Every structure is written in C-alpha cells, then in structure tokens.
Amino acid sequence: MSGKGTHVLNDNRYTIEKGDYFIVDYQNYHTYEVIKNEQLKIINLIFSPSFIDKSLQYCDSFNDVANHYLIHFRLPSTIVDLNKMIFNDKNEKIYSLISVMKMEFEEKNDAYFELLRGYLIQLTILTLRTLGKISALTTSPLVSDVLSAIRKDYHMPLHLSDLCIKYFYSEPYVSKKIKQETGLTFSEHLKNTRIEQACRMLINTNLKIYEISSFIGYNNFKYFQELFKIKQGLTPSAYRRKFSNK
C-alpha cells in the first residue's frame, strides 16, 4: 500500500514498493524487511483454494487454481514458478477489489461469502491476464477448440481421432500440438476434466457414485474408482465423506 522494502521468499530477495503484489504458495517461507526511514504498509490476502471450490481441497499451488474449471486459464509455458514473480497494480484494479472484499468481510451482509468468492476469482483472472500479455503466448485456435470440446462433451464418448476428422488434421499432428502447447496429452486433459467434474458432483449432489461414474463418461465403474483414487488420493466414497459437509 505504501513505503518500500524487501520481500524475502525462501532464498530469494525482492525489492517491493507501492502497487506491487505477489503470490505465495503453501510450504513457502516468506517475510519482509523494512528499508531504513521507510514505513512499509501491506495487505495480506490469505485463502484456502477450497474457498473458490470444494473440489480444490487438495490444491496447494496457484497453478492448479488457474487451471480450475471456474477459471480455465492456461499459464504460458515460459512461466515456471509464479512465486518468483512480482506483479504491479498500476491501474489499482487489484487494490480496489481487495478494498471491496475487506468491506464485505467486515460488514458481513447477506451473501457476502459468495461475493467474496466472486471477487477472488476476478482478482485471479486479472492477474493471469497480465501474465498472458507479458508472455504473448496463447493456445492456438486448433488446441483451443479441442480443449473446448473436452469441457463441453467430457461426458460423451470422446476420441481425438473423431475431432481430427472434424478439424481436417491428422491425429499425430493434433496430438503433438496439444502436448507442446499444454504439457498434457488429450487423454490426460479428458481424464482430468472428468475427475474434476466427479469431485463437484460428489460434493454437491446426492447421486450414487456409480451414477456419477456413468454421467462423466465412465461406464466401467471399477476403472473410474481406480482412476479417481490415483488422481485424488482417496476413493470416491471417502472423498465424499471427507468433503461433502464442509
């Protein structure tokens, strides 16, 4: 908010001043050092990823938040560690959002919790949009179309070969493009999307687990259970028991 100082994050030191802000993931050590004759005034915005959505219970990285279905922002491949970046709020949009969030939190009017969640998502997207402009890296139209198809039709029998016929490209070419631009294969994107949706349904619906399995595109219930445990570290039933009442 004001002043000048040094932000120490793990073994790295960064000079910070008014308008600067940064992201600190779990398990990181950080502190501040005040420069002589400066009065450093800061705002700490601390949140659990599950505040955005309960399916993020296991999330411990801002990268995972960025890739969540409510945000769906692909981080540029050149961005390795967001924790080492300093952002600057030149137009004070971020500060304005945080100010409104602070007011909502203090006044606690009706539905303030949902408003806070919405503001936090907006703050996240504004920050990620800045990253996109800096790197000038975006997903190609072809890969964007494939990822959109996954998000839209994940519950259907979905095969890359069918999409390739639709887009008039060879399967090896499209497969390579997806891997190059996103770091994941088509199959990995589809599995992640389906399990993500399963998490939402386990928490927010009373559907039977075998019904959820079928709904997201897995008629082989045993395979769904095994895949879910690999991805989430818990069986679907254990996941529901652990998180549905929180």
Tell me about this structure.
By secondary structure, the protein is mainly alpha-helical. The chain has two domains: 45-135, no CATH class; 141-241, Arc Repressor Mutant, subunit A (Orthogonal Bundle). It contains ten helices and five strands; from the N terminus they run ββββαβααααααααα. The strands form two sheets. A three-stranded antiparallel sheet has the order 2-1-4, with no helix packed on it. β1 (4-9) and β2 (12-17) form a beta hairpin. The longest helix has 24 residues, at 112-135. The chain is globular, with a radius of gyration of 21 Å.
Summarize the structure.
50% of the residues lie in helices and 9% in strands. With 246 residues, it is mainly α.
Attribute tags:
globular; 246 residues; 2 domains; mainly alpha; 9% strand
The coarse silhouette is globular
The CATH C-level class name of the largest domain: Mainly Alpha
What is the SS-derived class? mainly alpha
Task: State the end-to-end distance.
Answer: 34 Å
Radius of gyration: 21 Å
Order of strands, main sheet, comes to 2-1-4
- CATH superfamily annotation of the largest domain: Homeodomain-like
Helix fraction bin: 40-55%
